[in-house]
Amino acid sequence: MLFLRPINIRAIVDLIEHLGWRVVHYIYVSNEGLMRVQQLFQVMGKSDLQMTLNVKRASDVNSSYVILKELHHTNPELDIHAVLDMSIPMASELMNLLSEDPRVHNRRFHFLLVEPGIQELDFTKIRLYGYNVSGFQLVDFNNMTVRLFLSDWTKIDPAEWPGAGVKTITYEAALAVDAVSLFTRAMKNLSNFGLFESLFIRAKSGANSSKTCAAERLNVWNKGKHVLKAMKEMEFDGLTGRVAFDNRGHRKEFTLDVLDIGITRGAVKIGYWTPKDGLTMLKRKMVRPINAPSSENRTRIVTTIQTPPYIMKKPKPINGHPLIGNDKYEGYCVDLARKVAHEVGFDYVFQMVKDGAYGSKLPNDSWNGMVGELIRLEADMAIAPLTISAVRERVIDFSKPFMSLGISIMIKNRRTRKLTPNEWHVEDESNITNDFTISNSLWFSLGAFMQQGCDFSPKSISGRIVGSVWWFFTLIIISSYTANLAAFLTVERMSTPIESAEDLAKQTEIEYGTLRSGTTEAFFKTSKVAVYERMWAYMTSKTPSVFTDKIQDGISRVRESNGKYAFLVESSTNDYINNRLPCDTMKVGSNLDSKGFGIATPAGSDLGDKLTLAVLKLREDGELDKLQKFWWVEKGQCTPQDKNTDGGQSALTLSNVAGIFYILIGGLILAIIVAIAEFLYKSKVDSKKSKTSFGLALKSKARLSFRGHPAREDSSSGTPLRKSMSTYTYSGPSQRKIDQKKINFLIEISLFSLSLSLSLSLSLSLSLNT
Predict the structure, then answer these.
(1) CB 3.0-4.6 Å disulfide test: which of 132, 180, 240, 600 passes with 110?
(2) Strand ranges (DSSP E) for 724-764?
(3) What's the CA angle centered on 40, arms 34 and 41, to 5 degrees?
(4) Using CA atoms, how far apart are residues 102 and 81, in angstroms rounded to an integer?
(5) Segment 632-669, tens digit of pLDDT
(6) In whole angstroms, what is the distance from residue 402 CA to residue 572 CA?
(7) How far is CA 651 from the centre of its chain?
């Protein structure tokens, strides 16, 4: 006897052992199923597999539904592992019945089909229902023999040959084709040896003694054993793989593909089984989706999420023409996608993730965000700040990281205030009156500059203006220079209250949180480090919640909390925000971990290796560094003075004290104008009193101011010189002697003070800048 259909009981046992099932419910509907149950017990008895097998016989689909429904209600907390020994259409109908019952939780079921034709199921419905289904596939539709047969099969008229005209074939039909092919090949080989020459002359050969067709007695055909032997020795490649038999008539060189259908990744080939090698599971990178869309000459869909500076919408153009397609976006990932597409060679279009999430595993074992879209094959790749993690690597593929980063701490920046004239006040000093000479004026300016004072001060309006402006100028300059010198010598630095994660964990005054449903949250949730466990306990117990739904919400909370909230975020995002207006955030401490962003693709995508090679080439060429420098540094809006992130003392520059220079110059100009007006007014008054011309009085006062004595002129009348504390007035030509203490008029004071102050200011500003 020959068994063209492979016996796959050993394959079933090996797969159950791989899946780790300990309690298995075996449901069969035919006598052949009962025989397989007996074989299953025999194989289990020879193996070390520890498993509880519950066998149930069902008469039809409805009775099978009742059995599974009872198991569902009896064990409400346990997953149900069931082996279905029935035809593929019957198994599909059974799943439909279960899905229609609202009281049945479909995701609790994991079915294993005995029939080696799992690809005949409707994958879309299975994923929609939420079942997990594993099984075997005998017909390999990628095999050249199968492809050639289907090419001819589609050309046949289905009206004449029912079932023809389609690009698929059931495994039972494939077995029938191989059976016919086996028989015809065996008969052809036998005919070549002349075994059937007498077949058509039976009356003469004696094989059949009857000479008519209506024979009452038939003799046994003695050629049957030769045909069976020829078929058993036959080997060829059929639709069901290599057709070859052992001494017992069982198939010996066939291959069963192991497929798995689930809500997370659809139908994929996860391994294969052969009689010689047993079960061989494919490495994760070799897993390939079944019936995936063709990738040739197709525009790829790139799922992403709007996160500055990775993906941002461009502002509306001035000319009013709307932006369409990929031109609507800009950012680091936009430039990266363009460079990668150029290296690999494909067209693409950006698609914003529908739920606005990066990708987390949900309680029902499904995924949301960009990861979910890749699993459901709704996108071809994800180019975004998507962190490479072990849990994501189990369901999707990642390229080599295009950016390395880690979790960092963002806090409010403690900024120092700029130097302004409004923050200092001039203290009035006691006025000491005395005569001013050139030497005394110099001494007054120097004493005021060194903040030592002197024994005399001006009493006139212009003199007081000059003195006050000069005092104010020297006060600011000396105070600023002393403050910066002290800061330089003592190396005082502004310290932040938080410098590390340990500092955060030790206190409760400053709240801290992170983004909800992200890798940062998962890091703290799964960490076994004591500090991070304590931080996670604090974050989950805090009311109101310290978690945010969006990164921008966390940044806004930092800025509005006045230093009472710290945001745990990726270092790359932290660095970018610190370079954006209003420049009021800063990063403290080192990164808490090390990870990377990668380009994600569905498991087994044809682009996986190509994208990795493209990323490596861009990194070696320095393109990735250029992109990061462009979007983080060159596009930055903050200067080092704005950020003041290191807390150090910055050098005092001329721009910081420019205001007091303006006050000094303005005061000197005002003093000169008042002194000239006062000079002219005094000259006019003296000319009237001395009854001389205004020009002569003006000349005499100018000579007195610059030379120390008036013009030598005869005079027969006049009054004595009238002396005041700050000026001398000429009363007439009769007085010849002038006091030896020559008084410097306010014009002298103004000119001399202006020259002295400007020279000192220039030298001091140069010393401060150096």
Answers:
(1) 132
(2) 728-729
(3) 95
(4) 20
(5) 988 888 876 565 544 444 555 666 667 767 877 887 88
(6) 12
(7) 37
E strands present in 551-622: 565-570, 585-588, 595-597, 600-602
Question: What is the model's pLDDT at position 737?
Answer: 38
Q: Are 83 and 112 in contact (CB under 8 A)?
A: yes
Would you tell me how many other CB atoms lie within 10 Å of the CB of residue 138?
24
Rounded Cα gap, residues 69 and 74, in angstroms: 9
What does the alpha-carbon distance between residue 7 and residue 5 come to, in Å, rounded to a whole number? 7
Please say if the pLDDT value at position 470 is more than 60: yes
What the chain holds in terms of domains, given with CATH numbers, is 9-138+254-281 (3.40.50.2300), 141-207+221-246 (3.40.50.2300), 292-405 (3.40.190.10), 409-414+495-593+635-643 (3.40.190.10), 441-488+658-757 (no CATH)
Q: Quick check: 589 and 505 in contact, CB under 8 A?
A: no
Contact 325, 338 (CB under 8 A): no
pLDDT in tens, 141-182: 888 888 888 888 888 888 887 777 787 888 999 999 999 999
300-331: buried (b, 16+ CB within 10 Å) or exposed (e) per residue? Answer: bbbbbbbbbbbbbeeeeeeeeeeeeebeebbb
Give the pLDDT confidence of 276-329 residue by residue, as tens digits.
889 998 765 445 555 544 445 578 999 999 988 999 998 877 676 778 889 899
Residue 634 DSSP symbol: I
Q: E strands within 420-521?
A: 511-514
Q: What is the rounded distance in angstroms from the CA atom of residue 263 to the CA atom of residue 186?
A: 46
Q: Coil, strand, or helix at residue 645?
A: coil
Give the per-residue pLDDT at 265. 55
Higher pLDDT, 36 or 452: 36
Helix (H) or strand (E) holding 5: none
Whole-model pTM: value is 0.45
Q: What's at 551, amino acid-wise? A: I
Residue in 182, 168, 298 with CA at minimum distance from that of residue 230: 182
CA count, 13 A, side-chain hemisphere, 310: 22
One-letter amino acid at 240 equals T
CA atoms of 582 and 638, how far apart (whole Å): 8
- Residue 291, burial from CB neighbour count under 10 angstroms (0-12, 13-18, 19+): exposed
Q: Is the pLDDT of residue 425 over 60?
A: no
d(CA 481, CA 477): 6
